[in-house]
Write a structure and sequence with these properties.
The protein has 376 residues and is α+β, with helices and mostly antiparallel strands. The protein has two domains: 2-41 and 105-180 and 275-352, FAD/NAD(P)-binding domain (3-Layer(bba) Sandwich); 185-271. The protein has helices spanning 15-26, 51-59, 63-67, 106-117, 169-173, 233-238, 241-251, 303-328, 334-349, 361-369, and strands at 2-11, 31-34, 48-49, 72-74, 76-81, 84-90, 101-103, 123-126, 130-137, 140-148, 151-162, 179-180, 185-193, 203-208, 211-217, 221-229, 269-271, 276-277, 282-283, 286-288. The longest helix has 26 residues, at 303-328. It binds flavin-adenine dinucleotide. Flavin-adenine dinucleotide (FAD) binds at residues 11-17, 34-37, 45-48, 130-131, 163-165, 169, 187, 271, 290-292, 296, 298, 301-305, 307. Residues 6-326 form the FAD-binding domain. Pfam families: FAD_binding_3.
């Protein structure tokens, strides 16, 4: 087993881990980021980059490069219910520097972030490095054990940050369990061809007859997210592909001529929606951020943005102490780590109220009244 050393070891290179890795690298911190996959090319991941996140990229000098990536801008968010459109938000009226959501494939965003971080020699990204346990020194987390293509290794670090997503292995190894809130639905994702003549209607959930679907413009195709009630997947499969095609055609009329592209359930991907949150986001030597601390519903499209904001908050609150730890070996105090959750609690709690497609006008109004997540 090889032992690497770093000041901070971040497990997971999703939006949270990549942003934190970049921010710490810029501050001269020796940081190792572990990513279990060999690449970032995973379809059907959150790709709704909100105005606040674009502003963060702007502050990092990355906005121009970000906006040069293939993307699609949307300024209104809402519902089309039984044919009637209801806009819940219109970013163009808020006087923002970037008054829109940019739909950017998550892998492009991650490539941009780690490419920028790699300009710093104190940043190391290890791909195909799967964290599976924590190293302990007494009662303190002092590193991470990970599995690579050539066997098992460990990184010893003053601070371990779990940014390894909703099924966080580091969280499990540290013995932390999130409080589960339950989710009323799961999501089936698939693609259908997009034509230039198709309407462009912002980011609107289409609802009718108790069914709902979101269609996301990905240039040459539509990324379709079809909501199914929790536990309803097997029943849907048993009914065969035709009822699904009919539903999509009924909900999104202009797709009726191509729902036949769905040849079977092998063309779809089932994604379990989970909603949970940790009561404490830290333990001695360990901090948890992003989905590892609070898994979000895809409905509000805030998951990436909250993950990025967690990383920014962690960097803002902790960088000076981390630099001190790097210089002196002094541990980072628990109360400093606890400040991250305190800063981020409200924005991570608020979107849960919008975690399911609203079933009535009261819940639609509640959703509309939910304040947008604040920046970090
Ligand atoms: C169906 C669905 C649709 C969604 N749609 C949206 C959307 O439209 N907009 C939005 O903003 N959010 C959406 N989300 C949520 C969003 O994807 C997440 O909230 C966001 O990606 C969280 O970022 P993260 O960095 O915390 O975790 P993740 O994005 O999950 O990243 C974790 C990273 O850690 C890696 N990893 C995992 N385990 C290990 C390990 N043991 N060792 C090393 N690496 C590991 C993973 O490969 C991954 O790269 C959606 C989620 C789902 C399930």
């Amino acid at each position: 087993m090889t032992t690497l050393t770093a000041t901070v070891c971040v497990a997971g290179c999703g939006p949270a881990g990549a942003v934190l890795g970049l921010l710490l690298a810029r501050a001269g911190v020796e940081v190792v980021v572990l990513e279990k996959h060999a690449d970032f090319l995973r379809d059907f991941r959150g790709d709704t980059v909100h105005p606040s996140t674009i502003e963060v990229l702007d502050e990092l000098g990355l906005a121009d490069r970000f906006l040069a990536l293939p993307h699609h801008k949307v300024s209104t968010v809402g519902f089309v219910r039984d044919g009637h459109r209801l806009d819940l938000a219109d970013f163009s009226t808020l006087g923002l520097r970037y008054p829109y959501i940019a739909f950017v494939p998550q892998w492009d965003l991650l490539h941009l972030l780690v490419g920028e971080a790699a300009r710093h020699r104190n940043f190391r990204l290890l791909m195909q490095a799967e964290a599976y346990d924590v190293v302990r020194d007494g009662g303190r987390v002092a590193g991470v054990r990970f599995r690579g293509p050539d066997g098992d290794h460990q990184v010893r670090a003053h601070l371990v940050v779990a940014a390894d997503g909703r099924h966080s292995a580091v969280r499990r190894a540290a013995g932390l369990r999130p409080r589960e809130f339950g989710a009323p639905m799961d999501v089936l994702q698939f693609r259908l061809t997009r034509r230039d003549t198709d309407p462009d209607e912002g980011y609107h959930l289409r609802m009718a007859g108790g069914r709902s679907v979101a269609v996301i413009n990905r240039g040459s195709y539509w990324n379709i997210a079809y909501m199914i009630r929790k536990g309803g997947y097997e029943e849907l499969r048993r009914a065969g592909i035709q009822p699904l095609r009919d539903d999509v055609a009924g909900l999104v009329g202009f797709l009726a001529d191509r729902v036949g592209e769905l040849t079977g359930f092998d063309d779809t991907r089932f994604l379990e929606v989970r909603l949970n949150r940790l009561r404490r986001w830290h333990a001695p030597g360990l901090l948890l951020i992003g989905d590892a601390a609070h898994a979000m519903s895809p409905i509000a499209g805030v998951g990436i943005n909250l993950a990025v904001q967690d990383a920014v908050a962690a960097a803002n609150l902790l960088t000076r102490r981390i630099q001190q730890a790097q210089a002196t070996g002094e541990p980072i105090a628990g109360r400093a780590l606890a400040a991250v959750r305190r800063r981020r609690r409200t924005p991570t709690v608020a979107p849960r109220r919008c975690s399911a497609p609203p079933s009535d006008s009261a819940s639609t109004a509640r959703c509309a009244a939910t304040p947008p997540p604040t920046t970090a």
